[in-house]
Amino acid sequence: MQPLLERVRHLRVSLDESVEQLHLDMKQQELGAIDAQLAESDVWTNIERAQILSKQSASLRAQIEPWQTLVSQVEDIEELMVIGDETMTDEFGTQITALEQEFLRLKRDLLYKGEYDDHAAIIKFSAGAGGTDAQDWTGILERMYLRWAERAGMKVELVERSVGEEAGLKNATYSVSGPYAYGKLQSEHGVHRLVRLSPFNSDNLRQTSFALVEIMPEIDAPDEIVIDDKDLKIDVYRAGGHGGQSVNTTDSAVRVTHIPTNTVVAIQNERSQLQNKETAMKILRSKLAQMQLEQHAENLADLRAGESASWGNQIRNYVLHPYQLVKDTRTKYEDKDTASVLDGKLDGFMMAYLEHASSINFS
Q1: DSSP-based three-state secondary structure for 314
Q2: Same domain, 290 and 193
Q3: Measured in whole angstroms, how far is the alpha carbon of residue 51 from the centre of its chain?
Q4: CATH no. for residue 266?
Q5: How far is the C-alpha of 340 from the C-alpha of 331, rounded, in Å?
Q6: What is the phi-psi region of residue 326: left when phi exceeds 0, alpha when psi lies from -120 to 50, beta otherwise?
Q7: Which of 63, 85, 148, 204 has the fewest CB atoms inside 10 Å of its own CB, making it the most exposed?
Q8: CA 358 vs CA 290, 330, 354: distances in Å
Q9: Are 277 and 332 in the same domain?
């Protein structure tokens, strides 16, 4: 029994160290303050603020509660072992192994140290040059990330989507929320290259297609990224495309340009002009936050136009012919099971990126 008791005590010490590194006490205080605001009787008079608070509360709770549960379970089993008997040794051993495995899984949270790693993420897909093949590839990537999000227990909301004439997508934008959504997805930011036999070519020739996947931390609160009104150009225009008669007869579409960086966000859908403007501003703040991370800029005034990730930033190759392989160009992590990768098996690539960036190995 004594060796098992030593394992539990070692686990408890490691847990305490991890909880301290993750600043869970501070996050618990922050959660308490947010929940107190949500409990105020007039909180929903400002719906936008209440929604932001609710999302922040859910995010913090998802980060804190798994650790609290594990700490409680380790404390409970230690107490039981102290008063238990030798006949329960095998049972205790099984439970301790399960707790150690859960700790190893949660310990990956230590990799998420970035300023926005605990934020929700904005993910935007854009088809590259290449017509139908590129648009089909963009649609395949969209499905891949939606499958990953489903398996990861993430909540996904569609912001905007434009389909191709024959197949696939021209572009699409989603909001992805859940524990460390941006921290997990940040590795996917860049150009994804596909090599395959084209299903749209009558000669069935090998085709190379490109799609851009942009990952941005979702910035809900305007005070996180403060944009000077004089730096903005806002245009309204008549929305086009699908969405019903009202979309085509009202000036509901909104285009917001951040003049210093020439960053443009355009949003159009069935909702009001005001809602489109709010969505466009949220995505603009997210884009500028991502640019700050890429350029290591302390504030918006330091940002340089045209220097964010672009079509030259190829991060991953997906080869389906003449052989099967998905390989990351940065970490060299690879997987020959291309079908599973395209079905959302991305955790290996994401963890390899985080370990590569932090020089910590959790395997």
Answers
A1: strand
A2: no
A3: 19
A4: 3.30.160.20
A5: 19
A6: beta
A7: 85
A8: 19, 14, 6
A9: no
- What angle is formed at CA 127 by the lines to CA 125 and CA 128, rounded to 5 degrees? 130
The pLDDT assigned to 338 comes to 97
* DSSP-derived secondary structure for 229-285: GGGEEEEEE---SSS-HHHHHS--EEEEEETTTTEEEEE-SSS-HHHHHHHHHHHHH
Predicted pLDDT of residue 244: 41
pLDDT at 151: 95
Separation between Cα atoms, residue 103 and residue 2, nearest integer Å: 21
Domain-ending residue, one of 78, 111, 144: 111
Please give the single-letter amino acid code of residue 359: S
**212/89 same-domain check:** no
Q: What pLDDT was estimated at residue 247?
A: 46
Separation between Cα atoms, residue 189 and residue 313, nearest integer Å:
9
Q: How far is residue 69's CA from residue 99's CA, in Å, rounded to a whole number?
A: 11
Question: CA-to-CA distance for 264 and 287, rounded, in angstroms?
Answer: 9
**pLDDT < 50 regions, the chain:** 242-248, 363
Token digits for 317?
Answer: 């190759």
Helix H segments across 299-362? 338-341, 347-358
Phi first, then psi: what are they for 305, rounded to 5°? -65, 145
Contacts of 118 (CB under 8 A, 6+ apart): 59, 63, 112, 179, 180, 182, 183
3-state SS, residue 201: coil
Structure confidence at residue 158 (pLDDT) = 94
Range of the domain at 86: 2-111
How far, CA to CA in Å, does 127 sit from each of 108, 136, 170? 33, 8, 5
